[in-house]
Amino acid sequence: MGAGHGHGHGVSAEADRRYLAGALALLLAFMAAEVVVGLLSGSLALLSDAAHMLTDAFSIALALVAMRLAARPPEGGYTFGLKRSEILSAQLNGLTLILLAAYFVYEAIHRLISPPEVAGLPVLGTALAGIVINLVATRLIGRADRTSLNIEGAFQHVLNDLYAFAATAIAGLIIWLTGFARADAIASLIIAALMLKAGYGLIRSAGRVLMEAAPSGMDPVEVGTRLAQRPCVVEVHDLHVWEVTSGYAAMSAHVLVEPGGDCHAVRRDLQAVLYSSYGISHSTLEVDHAQTGDTGTFHCEDPHGPRHVAAEEEPHEHAGDPGCGH
């Protein structure tokens, strides 16, 4: 068996934390101002924007905490460390978005039926300022490592908030020019829809990791077929591919090698293919010789040529065979 580790990216973890901390401070300061203006102007759209910004700030704070936990080395019963704390953070962020969206849908429907008076000009001015703030925050988080679902979740929060501010600005302009107060509730429904979409996406992506599904876009059948076509490989079975956390895939499999083949050389070759073609750096391969009686005659063919795999092959233990790894 062989195992390898390696899962990095071009942006350092410390730089990631600085980018996220800068965006967090920016959003918290503007959110406080937006709540004040929203209450004074009577705008539900501004208050829903502020709530969305609160979830943005919450998601960034959770991301920072999760990054600290994930950086801890494995110990005790946590043999992979606390890397999945980032996935739990992403799932909690998604659930928060969905709950807040449900509340604002309820409030928006109520305001569509009985629209209150809303001051359009303060709404417009605050929304335009929010667009600028969110552009800066989006740029900051966008510079961090977005291959992490944890950071991508925070990025999507802020990006969706940018769209929400655009909808609020349009609503404020309509109210200011025409006095159509229901535009505020309509903008709130648009914001809630964006929150639902982002929340569902986070929960679905985090759920795939927690359920140990194969990484998105990776077909385990294709991986197994590719490995079975390598030189001297007879069969690959009991193959499992999963994500420990976002960007950190792992795989295990049982490999049967032609009688007389070098099991260690085959294992090294397969691990090189897994790393170069699929980015899988953590692989555990149990490599054995196949029984000659069950498999017939074997030939080491071109690695890119077809392989003929016999059915119902069983592994054979070769305790004294120096070429086989157990």
Characterization of this structure:
The protein has 9 helices and 4 strands. With 326 residues, the chain is an alpha+beta fold. α1 runs antiparallel to α4. The radius of gyration is 27 Å and the shape is elongated. The N terminus and C terminus are likely disordered.
List the topology elements.
Elements: H1 13-41, H2 44-70, H3 85-113, H4 120-142, H5 149-178, H6 182-210, H7 220-228, E1 233-245, E2 248-257, H8 263-278, E3 282-290, H9 292-295, E4 315-316
Parallel strand pairs: 2-3
Antiparallel strand pairs: 1-2, 3-4
Oligomeric form: single chain
Main β-sheet, spatial strand arrangement: 1-2-3-4
Shape: elongated
Percent of sequence in beta strands: 5-15%
Calculate the terminal CA-CA distance, rounded to whole Å: 6 Å
SSE arrangement, N to C? HHHHHHHEEHEHE
- Determine the structural class based on helices, strands and strand pairing: alpha+beta
Uncertain runs: 1-10, 294-326
Largest sheet: 4 strands, mixed
In short:
The protein is built from nine helices and four strands; from the N terminus they run αααααααββαβαβ. By secondary structure, it is α+β, with helices and mostly antiparallel strands.
Salient structural properties:
326 residues; alpha+beta; four-stranded mixed beta sheet; 9 helices; 60% helix; disordered C terminus
